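To assess whether the prediction recovers the assembly geometry, we first specified each molecular entity separately, as shown.
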Amino acid sequence: MRTTFNSSFMNSAADLARTAEDLARRQAEVSSGRRITKPSDDPSASSGSVHEHGEMAALDRYAQTADTATARLSIVDSVLSDMLDQLTSAKTTILSARGTNVTATQRAALADQLSGLRDAIFADYGTSFNGNYLFSGQAAKTAPYTKNPNGTTSAYAGTATTMAVDVDRNTAVTVSVNGEGLARGTDSVDIFAALDQAITDIRAGNAAGMADAGSAVERAFGRATSAQTAIGTSINAVEIHQGRVADLRRASEGRADGLEKVNLAEAITRMSQADTAYRAALGAIGTTGRKTLMDYL
Amino acid sequence: DDIGVALTSLSSLVNISTIARAGGGVDVTYGNGHPLVLDANVYSLDVSSGPPNFFARLQSAGTDVTSEMTGGSIAGLLQTRDVLMPGYADQLDTLAYTVATQVNAVHQSGYDMHGATGAAFFTPLASAAGAASAISISAGIAADPSTIAAGATATPGDNGVARQLANLRDARVMTGGTATFLDSWGTFVYQVGADSRAASDEHGSRAEIVSQMELMREQVSGVSLDEEAANMMKFQRAYEANARFFQVIDSTLEALLSLGR
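The predicted structure of the complete assembly is given in tokenized form:
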């Protein structure tokens, strides 16, 4: 086989280019920490990476929704606790007014006290979060109850349907309350009307009326307790799903890193090998370039 | 020589065929025998464009020869322009059209915060053709985001349709109801990457073949300095030997002539 200067040069140049390209690729891997910069680097891994990033985006959305849901439900829970305290005080006030030795002056004072408790409960129902009422069902922009000019409370202005959000795939939690279901339930009048009547009955010394009012407040207390239990269950459910979503997120991120990123120790080793090969190619060119018969003549 | 260099350069552009002439020149044709060089005559390869897409077309003496380009970089560009890119565009168009259609269908079933029924979220597309470049949020929605129909009922605060739109992410509405939007996109990314990788690998293997053939040609026609130096030494010694022969003859004749005096 004839070995010409050009053929030796062409072989050497091709080898040098190949080793230089390999070295440049290994250097880019080490400096960027990534093994995929375009789909053709690894089509299968690129496709997998697309899926993982899509999954992470979905999980991030669920996580944000869960955080918001937790904040709302915590407020509802807190309001219900306050509402229960007000209802407990209302029961005590009504019982106190039913005493046989209660004077008219004392009944008037108790009536004023019950009036204050009624107003506190009314304020609880008007609680909002980021401009959205929490006790209006889906009618987030509508106050559940308002005050009539004569001081009485209006009819419920919200909806019976509540608002739900997704905190995980196929998992929704309710983040608002049907205010009428809480305030009235199956009673003929809501708690505000019942308390208004109780105030009137206390001032008038109407024992039967006060007894009815006590029962109404007791039923309202039961409804609030049930609602708080349900809210607590929802808060627990959200926490459980937050943990699950976080675990899924970590797993997805791990898979994406496995597809996209290099093992640095392995990449540095390969870069070192490529550098050695490149230097060897340079050395080989330098050596063969000198070996001609002319040099020996 | 110059002809070889020119032919090498030309062959990298188009699939040519050559016939050596007795006088030392080369006749060059391309495609289905269209002439480029015949004897002393040169024939041009023209470029024109026209409807429907005004893409460049190759012509020889008024005949469209674009489809006859089966080799060289021109054929590669035509393959990319006329086969690969339209295929990719079709996939993108299908994805965009399906996204717009599915979102609009859900959105139009809902109510905005004013209680009005939802209009199209994306500007309605007549067909998948060109959908990827044409997809856009409808003018009404863009001008007034409060007209986004997020509710399943007219109650402000109802988020039923918003949840349905979010669930489209996992809906299998692509590829005959077997794939999600993300699946379709992932498949597209894979295909582009695989096609690019295959083209790169093919280029590498072809380049290696060309390199080997160039090496073989070089072995036959190339200059080996060692070989030339050895031949030079051989001929130099032969010359010296001949010169020495004449020297001996001259000396012998001189000696003979000196004997006769």
